């Protein structure tokens, strides 16, 4: 089942939207990526990935999941505590088991970040089993 092609299940154009209101725990200070009280880049990345996961959730075949394999992220504007950001993911390309998403993160009319997130369709049980083996 791990060899299943992603384009059999996930058509390009598939998308999802995820929203976050920035709290103290989302700041660069809190996540260790800086010393300013604004939305930290690691949280922007997590939000972008959450949108890609949400895009595939309703169509995910039993026993399968996707895992992140590559990310390109441009974090352009700061978002203060209390600000709300929205990540909109769109499946741009399917190549075998690989899914390439384009994600835009906005704060109202402003583009806060843009990302390209690549995920791979895998057999959940086999993946966890391999990850759990001693090195």
From TrEMBL:
SUPFAM superfamilies: Thioesterase/thiol ester dehydrase-isomerase (SSF54637). It comes from the Bacteria. Residues 22-124 form the Fluoroacetyl-CoA-specific thioesterase-like domain. It holds the Pfam family FlK. This is Thioesterase family protein. It comes from Plantactinospora siamensis.
């Amino acid at each position: 089942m791990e060899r299943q092609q992603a384009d059999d299940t996930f058509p390009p154009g598939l998308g999802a939207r995820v929203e976050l209101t920035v709290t103290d725990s989302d700041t660069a200070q809190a996540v260790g990526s800086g010393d300013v009280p604004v939305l930290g880049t690691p949280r922007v990345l997590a939000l972008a990935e959450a949108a890609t996961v949400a895009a595939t959730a309703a169509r995910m075949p039993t026993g399968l999941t996707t895992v992140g394999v590559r990310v390109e992220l441009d974090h352009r504007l700061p978002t203060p505590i209390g600000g709300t950001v929205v990540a909109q993911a769109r499946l741009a390309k399917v190549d075998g088991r690989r899914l390439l998403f384009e994600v835009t993160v906005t704060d109202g009319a402003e583009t806060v970040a843009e990302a390209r997130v690549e995920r791979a369709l895998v057999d959940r049980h086999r993946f966890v089993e391999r990850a759990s083996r001693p090195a």
